[in-house]
Design brief:
By secondary structure, this protein is of the alpha+beta class. The chain is built from 13 helices and 31 strands. An eight-stranded parallel β-barrel has the order 12-13-18-19-20-21-22-23. Strands 4, 5, 8, 9, 10 and 11 form a six-stranded antiparallel β-sheet that branches. Strands 1, 2, 3, 6 and 7 form a five-stranded antiparallel β-sheet that branches.
């Protein structure tokens, strides 16, 4: 250690930054006047060295120095203030928490010095618009931890990489990772401490499986890396492999209210610069939304949150690349309530299905990690969170679910058939809605958590995907895949501008029209549970003034998609709108089929019978 030279450093960037080979700038915020410095630990001989900051090393509240001649592969480090020692809050590698589910020992930071590895000269971001995206939200560990996943390194970033062919086959364009930065999964009764450096001192350990807590926001989670591979390399390899197949990576980032706003922006920049992630789903409060949304470096990065102050961000301007998107539970509850035939929902649902904003995207879903899975949505009326150890008091008591007549798993054929149909209805809603659909991992093959809507503390078969369900519920998977393909093939279902619902092309039909049992007349009273939508597909090939876009096929004029929705418990007959006499309607999706008699299109193409609790999609040919 005697060969390491101590030189004046720079206050930014915070943390350990390799300026060149064997030279590291060290900078940390120290708010107190207590003696502060760096502890270096030699991994070979076990010796340590304390390097204090001098008064001249302090700029504002930042202490900084330059370590020259240091072998970064040999040493680990931590900071200290008075008697308190802690790992680097800006550390790129956290050492001591690499064993999942174990109480960490002495947490330290490791040096990550890989100059030249982050060169962006050959990097081309995917930049897929929200309208063309299909999201898939997953837990890194739970996605492949079950032995049925068949991957080489279950529960790791590498496991996700091995499942890329599966994701592509399903039609996924982006994965959204639940917290994949370093967090201490064994939390204590002291949860809520004001300092991240206290989060690794559990008093009464309880597992935080999900990871929605304060973390080390620059370090990929070490226990998610395969054995023998640095977490930074493992994460980067996963991102590169996904990008090579056209799949984007969105990171969920949870920030408690006490995280400083500049720290948040700095963390987001880091993941984009160092790992080329494609976006962030921001969670928590006190997030500097305007600052983040107007950061020039993040202009091409997807940013997702409950809501954005659009006027403060854009004013009267329209973004060149629509990178902001809303994501909240409003759509989920509206569709769920309509799915189980609640009254008074039709107006909300009609608005949700055709929602498009010229400045913002929207990510919508039927189920999410913090609630019932899709299978549980149709199997349970009440939450069953007994395994969480909180007397079933945790989790949302209201899920807008319906068990279809029996609570939990059953062998009753009538109940099972109805549940299958309701699942198909939910899938159809998710894929026939204009904005960006998000799928909860495992929903596509009937994953169940046995009615637990908040398994945040459970690491086991309940929360791990059982890939054997893929064969048991192959019909659900194939239906989801079919609906994803249909959405992708029909641009009118993926519009980037709001519908005018007028005939601005002077073609005899508006871009979108609403219908009921009578053509061109929709009923929206509180007791109505059925409606239809007619899309004139060539409006996707023209601009907002009705002029054809370059390279578009004008022969598509006169083609239509008709969607009939009946969430009533009785059949309804719809009068079909008249189309060109050379065109005929063809049924392409019928959620009532597969297990029972389907809907019926009469021979003269004037009417169609839509079965109870069913959705029907027709195209003109």
């Amino acid at each position: 250690m005697e060969d390491i030279k101590i030189l004046p450093g720079n206050p930014y960037p915070l943390g350990a930054y390799c300026t060149k080979c064997n030279e590291v700038n060290m900078a940390v915020v120290c708010n107190s006047d207590e003696p502060a410095g760096i502890n270096l630990y030699d991994r070979i001989n076990g010796k340590s060295r304390k390097i204090p900051f001098k008064a001249s090393d302090k700029v504002g509240n930042i202490n900084c120095m330059l370590l020259s001649g240091i072998d970064t592969d040999r040493y680990e480090y931590s900071f200290y203030e008075g008697d308190k020692e802690y790992p680097d809050p800006h550390g790129k590698l956290i050492v001591g928490n690499n064993k999942w589910g174990k109480i960490p020992g002495n947490l330290r930071s490791g040096f990550v010095c890989e100059k030249g590895k982050f060169d962006r000269t050959d990097y081309k971001p995917i930049l897929r618009p929200y309208k063309d995206s299909v999201f898939y939200v997953l837990h890194v560990r739970g996605f492949t931890r079950h032995k049925s996943s068949g991957v080489t390194h279950p529960g790791t970033f590498s496991g996700i990489t091995e499942k890329i062919p599966y994701l592509k086959n399903l039609g996924i364009t982006a994965i959204e990772l639940m917290p994949a930065y370093e967090f201490i999964e064994l939390e204590s009764v002291k949860a809520g401490d004001n300092d991240v450096m206290d989060a690794y001192k559990p008093l009464e350990p309880k597992l935080n499986y999900w990871g929605y807590k304060k973390g080390f926001y620059r370090a990929p989670k070490s226990s998610y890396a395969e054995p023998g591979v640095k977490p930074t390399d493992s994460f980067r390899n996963m991102v590169n492999a996904l990008h090579a197949e056209g799949i984007e990576v969105i990171m969920q980032m949870y920030f408690p209210s006490d995280i400083k706003q500049p720290y948040i922006l700095d963390a987001l920049r880091y993941w984009v610069l160092e790992f080329h992630v494609d976006g962030f789903h921001l969670m928590g409060e006190n997030i500097p939304l305007t600052l983040i949304a107007t950061e020039p470096m993040l202009a091409n990065t997807k940013l997702i949150y409950y809501g954005f102050p659009v006027n403060d961000i854009y004013g009267n301007d329209t973004p060149k690349f629509k990178n902001l998107a809303l994501c909240n539970d409003d759509y989920m509850y509206n569709i769920r309530r309509f799915l189980k035939s609640d009254e008074g929902m039709i107006r909300n649902v009609l608005g949700d299905l055709r929602y498009v904003d010229s400045k913002l995207g929207r990510v919508h879903y039927i189920s999410n990690c913090n609630g019932f899975t899709l299978m549980d949505l149709v199997s349970y009326d009440r939450k069953h969170n007994e395994l969480n150890g909180e007397n079933n008091k945790d989790g949302n008591p209201y899920n807008a679910s319906w068990n279809c007549g029996f609570e939990g798993s059953t062998t009753r054929k009538a109940v099972s058939r109805l549940r299958r149909k309701q699942i198909r209805n939910a899938i159809a809603f998710n894929m026939l809605t204009q904005s960006t659909p998000m799928i909860l991992a495992g929903d596509e093959f009937g994953n169940s958590q046995k009615g637990n809507n908040n398994p945040y503390c459970i690491d086991g078969p309940l929360t791990w995907l059982n890939w054997n369900d893929l064969e048991r519920n192959r019909d659900i998977y194939e239906f989801y895949k079919k609906c994803i393909e249909f959405k992708k093939k029909n641009p009118i279902l993926n519009m980037d501008r709001p519908f005018a619902m007028t005939d601005y092309c002077a073609c005899g039909y508006p871009d979108l029209s609403l219908h009921g049992e009578e053509a061109w007349k929709v009923e929206t009273d509180d007791l109505t549970r059925h409606f239809a939508m007619l899309y004139s597909t060539h409006y996707a090939d023209v601009d907002k003034n009705g002029k054809w876009l370059p390279g578009k096929d004008k022969s598509k004029k006169g083609e239509f998609i008709y969607i009939a929705v009946n969430m009533h418990w009785s059949d309804h007959t719809f009068a079909l709108p008249k189309i060109h006499p050379d065109k005929r309607w063809e049924v392409v999706v019928d959620t009532s089929q597969m297990t029972e008699e389907g809907s019926f299109l009469d021979d003269d193409q004037k009417k169609i019978l839509v079965r109870d609790r069913s959705i029907l999609v027709l195209i003109s040919k």
